[in-house]
Write a structure and sequence with these properties.
The protein is mainly alpha-helical. Helix content is about 55%, strand content about 5%. The longest helix is centred in the middle third of the chain and has 32 residues. The structure holds zinc ion (ZN).
Length: about 700
């Protein structure tokens, strides 16, 4: 067969099935269902064709697979993208209608036995020697992914594996429903100004809204105010409420969430952990942690433990010092009783008072210094210096989904086109979801080159939720918004500056879960570098850069109470690890015993006897972080260490800076998923990652 049989000709009448810069001006919700169904039918026929005659060679196997994956990701990704940035009831209905068919097709691709056999034959045969590194990695990862999904199991084992998957999916749904229901079941209604003592304006507004939603006639000024266990509500309340007794109630409710009655997650914990262990053993792994790490950058559980222990040793004494400082501060503020007996519901409150006294700045104070056009100019200049690229606006050269959306083209130092990206900078509560994210519109690919191109160039979507312009003034950004822009731009750089021609390993595709935040967090570091931040800033009226005094407060706020924050992350990471390796569901110890043992080594205050934090630890029991929570810190180590390479070379020296920048571009940004991330990191840094720079960054060294 020829590979063209799995590359159907795009339907010219349906713009969802285009294959280039999307025609955002022509996309209609009513064309989604027929378009995606037609695509699935074509791809399904191509897949069946491929399965009937799987040649164990690269061109006959991997290229059609890439086309199949890519076509669906492009069109279905477009639907997902618009759902996130231009939501409408019609589009949502269309998405929901066809989604089960898309999921079923994706499963069918991932679990295709003929394709798996052909890939294994490719790996075992003489053709393997002719493949280059990226191709081998793609094939090896496809094989591994299918194996982790149980493709190698037969008969009874296969049946048991599938039954476990089904039960785990159900348990995970029940776990999150319990958390949600338990969160909803709690409310603390404040009816007098005295009960609302200390609450800032923003929390009063939020709490009055919550009260209104529960049927009270409430206002931000006069109350009543309803405090809930939603993080923005409970978290802010613990920071600000001047009523110690009420803080205690909220804290106790939070740590016993989903631990009682009809929403009790307690019995689910051991069941989930037991099933995960059984599933891992069916696949030949000693533990679920070993199974999880098979597809991650970390070499094994020992490497993760080593990192967590190193961070624990550095952050525990710092957290103890921080606690002592809080006691002293509370005593000096006249709260003798609290100082003598500082409790869990006091620490955040006193830390916030101390922060206000020492480092407080308001985001409003900073905004005038960060007009978006100025920040973009500075960001692009920095990217130019570091990576020898040129970014220019190209608005009007591509249709966009909203008039505020910008379009930019990226060229190399010689002016050759490299990539393009859309930037959707502002929040639009009516039809755009919150948060910020980078998505792929098109990925780099030689096999899927568009007409007139030798290789298809990558295009990214950068989506933020910044403050919109008011009147004739540009968008004035908070420091947090500047950080977010840098973060997403970092993801975008890895997508756009890839040099990998194999689409399945280009950009962020194929990069391990625990390594994917390296470029994004790396870019954030520049916002804490004085000269860079000053160069990004310029007062909207006077053009003056950010005053030094404000910069120092920003820098100090980053390291304030960093020991306790780090220790908390270590506690979550180690708890996750111990539960997924070492814990024996048949043994005497309960998950709670395991958690308590970790906590004894990772806390400065003993837990309350009734604390059932595990019952709402959704990251690992209902999210994708099982035996992967450590990834947050793992990637942060990489990004801090990468940034340290620039500091060591001398950021003030343009030549040195450019040299390290080119090396970062040629390794981390260019190689993407084509090489193991540890090899990529070594190629950049010349050695294994070190924890030192991260500890220094937070002054914990
Ligand atoms: Zn990110």
């Amino acid at each position: 067969m020829t590979s063209s049989s799995v590359l159907p000709s795009p339907a010219p009448d349906n713009p969802w099935l285009d294959f280039g810069l999307p025609r955002f001006d022509a996309l209609r919700a009513e064309q989604v269902v027929p378009g995606i169904r037609a695509l699935l039918a074509e791809l399904g026929a191509g897949l069946a064709d491929l399965e009937r005659n799987c040649p164990p060679d690269w061109a006959g196997l991997a290229v059609p697979l890439e086309r199949c994956t890519d076509r669906l990701e492009y069109s279905w990704g477009l639907v997902g993208h618009l759902l996130a940035v231009r939501d409408s009831p019609e589009l949502r209905r269309a998405h929901d209608e066809v989604q089960p068919e898309v999921v079923a097709f994706q499963l069918r691709c991932a679990q295709s036995e003929p394709i798996h056999r052909a890939l294994c034959a490719l790996r075992a045969g003489p053709a393997w020697e002719t493949l280059h590194g990226a191709q081998r990695r793609i094939a090896a990862n496809l094989i591994l992914d299918a194996e982790l999904a149980g493709i190698g199991l037969r008969g009874e084992a296969r049946g048991r594996f599938n039954a476990i998957q089904t039960e785990l999916a159900d348990l995970s749904t029940r776990f999150s429903h319990h958390v949600l229901d338990a969160t909803k079941a709690f409310e603390l209604l404040l009816t007098t100004p005295e009960e609302a003592l200390g609450l800032p304006e923003s929390l009063r507004r939020l709490a009055a809204q919550a009260a209104q939603a529960r049927g009270h006639a409430a206002s931000a000024e006069a109350g009543p105010w309803c405090i809930t266990l939603d993080p923005p509500s409970a978290g802010a309340f613990l920071l600000h409420s001047g009523r110690r007794d009420l803080r205690e109630r909220v804290y106790r409710a939070r740590v016993t969430r989903a631990a009682h009655g009809s929403t009790d997650n307690g019995p689910l914990l051991a069941r989930i952990l037991g099933l995960r262990l059984e599933m891992a053993r069916l696949l030949g792994f000693a533990s679920y942690a070993d199974y999880s790490l098979a597809r991650k950058m970390a070499k094994g559980v020992a490497a993760v433990r080593e990192l967590e222990e190193e961070l624990r040793a550095a952050s525990l004494p710092a957290a103890q010092r921080e606690l002592a400082a809080l006691r002293a501060f509370a005593a000096a503020a006249g709260a003798a009783a609290e100082a003598a007996d500082l409790q869990h519901w006091d620490t955040a409150f006193w830390a916030e008072r101390l922060r206000e006294e020492r480092y407080a700045y308001s985001e409003e104070e900073l905004r005038p210094y960060f007009p978006l056009p100025r920040v973009l100019q500075g960001l692009f200049r920095l990217a130019g210096q570091l990576f020898d690229i040129d970014i220019q606006p190209a608005d009007g050269e591509a249709p966009v989904w909203h008039p505020d959306v910008r379009f930019f083209r990226v060229r190399d130092g010689e002016g050759r086109p490299l990539a393009a990206f859309y930037l959707d900078p502002y929040s639009r509560p009516a039809d755009k979801r919150g948060g910020a994210w980078m998505d792929s519109c098109l990925g780099r690919s030689a096999a899927l080159a568009l007409a007139g191109q030798a290789v298809r160039l990558p295009v990214a979507y950068l989506n933020c939720n910044g403050s919109p312009p008011v009147g004739d003034r540009p968008s004035l950004m908070t420091f947090g918004e500047v950080l977010t822009l840098f973060h997403e731009f970092g993801h975008g750089l890895q997508h756009m500056l890839t040099r990998v021609d194999e689409g399945l390993a280009a950009g962020i595709r194929g990069v391990e879960w625990d390594a994917v935040e390296l470029p994004s967090q790396f870019m954030e570091n520049w916002c804490y570098h004085r000269e860079t931040l000053l160069a990004l800033s310029g007062h909207v009226d006077t053009g003056e850069p950010l005053p030094d005094e404000l910069f120092h407060k920003i820098a100090a706020a980053r390291t304030f109470m960093a020991g306790g924050a780090m220790l908390g992350q270590v506690r979550y990471g180690l708890t996750d690890l111990e539960l997924h390796q070492g814990y024996d569901p048949q043994g005497q110890a309960t998950p709670l015993d395991v958690e308590r043992a970790v906590r004894a080594r990772t806390s400065v205050l003993p837990p309350l006897a009734e604390d059932r934090f595990l019952c709402s630890f959704s990251h690992i029991f209902a999210g994708g972080y099982a035996a992967g929570y450590y990834s947050y810190k793992w990637a942060e180590v990489l990004s801090a260490d990468a940034f340290a390479a620039f500091e060591e070379a001398g950021i003030a020296d343009p030549l040195a800076l450019a040299a390290v920048g080119r090396r970062f571009r040629d390794t981390v940004l260019a190689e993407g998923g084509a090489r193991h991330p540890m090899e990529v990191f070594r190629a950049f840094r010349g050695r294994d990652p070190s924890v030192g720079p991260l500890l220094r960054q937070y002054r914990l060294a």
